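Key idea: predict the complex, not the pieces.
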Amino acid sequence: MKTRREFIKISAVGAGAAAIGLSAVNIAGLKLVNAANDQTAVSDEEMTSFPTYCEVCFWKCAGWTYVDKHKNIRKIIGNIEDPHCNGRLCPRGTGGVGMYTDEDRLKTPLIRETVNGEQVFRKASWKEALDLVASKMKDVANKYGPESFALFNHGAPGEHFKHLLHAYGSENEGEPAWAQCRGPREVGFSATFGSWIGSPEPTDIRDTNCLVLIGSHIGENMHNGQVQEVADIIGRNATIITVDPRLSTVASKSKYWLPIKPATDLALLLSWIHVLIYEGLYNKDYVEQYTMGFEQLKEHVKDMTPEWAYGITTIEPSIIRKTAREMANAAPAVIVHPGRHVVWYGDDSQRERAIAILNALLGSWGKRGGFYFKEAISVPKYPHPQYPHPEWSWKDNLDGKYPLSSMAITTELLAASIPEFEYKHQIKAWMVAGTNLPLTIPNKELFKTAAEAVEFIVVVDTMPMDITGYADVVLPECTYLERFDALRAAPHREPNIALRMPAVEPKYETKPSWWIAKQLGERLGLGDFFDYDDFSEVLDWQLKKMGTSLDEMKKIGIKMFDRKSGPLYLADGEEYHFNTNSGKIELYSTEFAELGFDPMPKFTKHPEPEDGFYRLIYGRAPMHTFSRTSNNHNLFDLMNENSVWINPKVAELWDLKTGQKIWLQNQDGIVSTFPIKVRVTERIRWDSVYMVHGFGHDNKKLTRTFGRGASDTQLITNVMVDPMMGGTGMRGNFVTFITENPGKEAEA
Amino acid sequence: MRYAMAIDTKKCVGCSDCVVACQTENNVPHGYCRDWIVENVSGAYPIVEIELRSERCNHCENAPCVRCCPTGASHTVEGGIVMVTHDECIGCGACIQSCPYDARYSHPDGYVDKCTFCQHRLEKGQNTACVDVCPTKCLHFGDIEDPYSDVSLALKNRSWKVLAPEAGTKPQLYFLT
Amino acid sequence: MKEELFISGRDIPNIDPFLNIWHWQIPLYLFLGGLAAGIMFFAGLFTIMGKEKEMATTVKWAPFLVPIALVLGLFALFLDLKHEMYFWRLYTTVRMGSPMSWGAWTLMLVTPLSMIWSATYLKEAVPNWNWKFKMIEQTIGFFTKKRREMAWAMMFLAVVLGVYTGILLSAFNARPLWNTSILGPLFLVSGLSTGLATIIWMSKNKTERRIMSQIDIVLIAVELFLIVHLFMGFLSATAVQVEAAELFLGGQFTVTFWVFVVILGLAFPAVLEILELRGFHIPIWIPALLILFGGLVFRFVMVEAGQITRYLY
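Result:
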């Protein structure tokens, strides 16, 4: 069957040969880090260092890029002044060098073409590619209105392309971060405390006496600052309570590991609330002064006893009580951690509400060892004309659905791209910058149908990720080590900024996102929105307005500022206005009630696997992030594929051995394209299997990681959507094992 | 003066930062590593324990690899650090055979290589790359003969073990348990 | 269940999952070294006993193989080196703790010695041989008179060489299979036995063959005795050594070792030699070849299996 847009897997002869020729010349001229002549370590004195902040994950640790005399990047070390990392980068940051040296990097702009009936990519010049993209954008604006052009993005490129998108006249930008990741916790905490959790999380772990983790696997997720602080509290023997069906690394270091039955966390949380209230362990002064809705909550959890929860969760009532008492004992220096990737079963906003309520009862919000009041410094906006007001945006398309979504829902943008779904407003073209949608969005069929329906897709990326196979135009961005970007001004205990500057010239023909955005803007007649020649001018202007300069920042990398919003914590008895309807912490959510949702969380049973099927649980490994790093040679060396964790009793039933390769088939009959190695381990329950996310890449241009491991995203076809904010719950998928090769070709 | 390292297995999360930091600092070729992480799991679900260890050359006090080297390329320097002089090494592999910890490897360029306790950094008063990068600060390093060094203080008041003590090499890597 | 695994992706070539850094070059060298030691020992012995005429092959002809074997062995060793351009470093120092160093120097002495020994018999071997230079003629003549002294040196160095091939391995305590002092004597006896096998095969003299066979049977008996004690030692030692022994008692090397080394390489040839001595006519090349083959396989198995055994993981 001929599809309009075939997934282009193998590079065309023309483009491929030219690209190889080009890269061979470059390699010979550039003297890569591991070149044979350069054997010994180079001392720091013989290198120059440039400030940057890491782009491998969202934590954005600030660091120094060390470049040797031959202009090779040798290593990246953390900036000791940076509160995100305290001078110690995580393995991905340390391995960031591999992002720069990866020979599989996108090197030139590519344009899709049909040659002899086959769709291929051919090399193009920047001028040609940019002209094409701009003309398509103009087409869309003329035919359908600029609002029909959508942007999918993640990370630093987003800043530049959102600016372009807004100047162009659209507000349809979606980040997987909302509906595929942390959306529910923002909704749950916003309803309770009137404030998002945000990023990085304002959890005062270093001073806490009790850390409660609901499924959060700190230590395997490498949220750098948090891992550091958790290590500190392990050192001083603080209590950690981990609720996880799997023995995660942090669970193995916890005082209490609650091996909960999957999909039952809400019952546990509600029974904890019950214990705190009915045993009088909650923080009475705090609740009295700052909250409303206590009586309703008390009535609501009347029957949600530990005995009730035991039947659902398999956690013993005595443990439930014991752990509740530990939390209360430590209060207010206790954190019930909101987690980060919390789109599990579709009722996730309510589960996060329960977590928020627990924190409120313990009185940890705004207290030392609980949640501090974060502050970010506001970076002055470089002057530009006012953005045009778009006629419609993604919210209009929702038709009242998902009323609590504050950020666009990526899956909704995809659905709006498919005419058959008959959304009021149609999306006609995409730009995808820095996010690998095929390995991010569950229900791959939706993505593929949408990709085929839209008229034009332009992808901006550093690597030939799977998403590039769907593009009409591919624009190669240089890595974060080779470019300027917007200042990092993330919220923390103290406001601070970090500078990213290029350590070396961009390799091959790659360009920074700010340049791409500006070039497109100029072609679209929006030159006034990009009133500078080089982005460093923007940075210098901003920094001068903030009392420093680009020259100073180049020397120090990080600058701290004084807090202006008040102290980190609430003083005892201090008056405080919360940004909710009532001005108080809402144990009973008026916001939810108004919209017809349960004002207090209720437990709902979720579907369980059939005989012979096992719940698919996925997570992270500390040496990788998303699907972004699997080809990075430094990080590939640490972990080159994922494995499926199977309980020994189950392995015995199926006669599976560690190291054996099997295929996974889910409840909807989808079979993994690639096999995955078995790891028989006691760390996982007998009703579930576990695998690390981000492998099973299907693009041959990723020469190292193509076909290594299996993709969990591919097996997530049952999506449980959160009715409040559109989050795509992904943990309701079950797999069985296929030991013989099902003979599937690598699918499009 | 004797350099030693203490690894706090309670804090190590197995992130392998020490591995990649060593590789970028010391230009270790792809496919090779001077340090590595071992995960040990025991028990039966749900009573399960994990031990995580960051391992490397133990810079043994009674190093068999130094003893058996026919050319003297493998030698000990100040502080008890076991080093290999590249242009004295003939690549015979005797030292690799003699190491109970499998800490050495044959570098693609022919000589034998391994962890050097980042001697080039120690000379400048810096710490080893792995100790400096570890996000959980579970690696402690220093002169074990100095009671106030980081490693000596880490060993006080904590139970610890060494690997394969029966091999009789007097290893200088201590695992805090 | 217990798991112990690398989680940082460690997969070093030739080190993981099992050590395999010494390949065919080392066992071949050990075999050739043992063979050379065997021949040299008996050449020296029978020279001192004054039996040059009766044991011509032993004293005069078989030793021609020694320099060839040694040079081949050294070449194999050279091929094994991964940083071979620096091989000369071996001769810049003597390291008493390193059997490899002793071996390097011993070979430095043995090889020229064996060449000189054979050079003194070259005129008998090749009738019209002319040394061309008077200097060489005189030197060879000098050494020809010193055969007795050389014989003592050869015997001594042969024992050193034979034992050294075993001690080389047993010095590596980290490999439990090699960590036994029986290995030195075992390799020496095995080397002497392969030397004898070669002499017997080459010799046309019935008496010579008879005497050598008798010695060989005794040596094989000693070897079998040592092998039994080798395994008894492992089985009563530490856990890692018990595991090492199990490679041969049910593990992957069981068949290769007991069939090819012990039965075909030792016991069966010994039986054949006894039968020959009793009067049955056995084609001489059969036991000789089997002993040589068994000796070679023995060393291959020991080197490969030894690298697999370990203390950790």
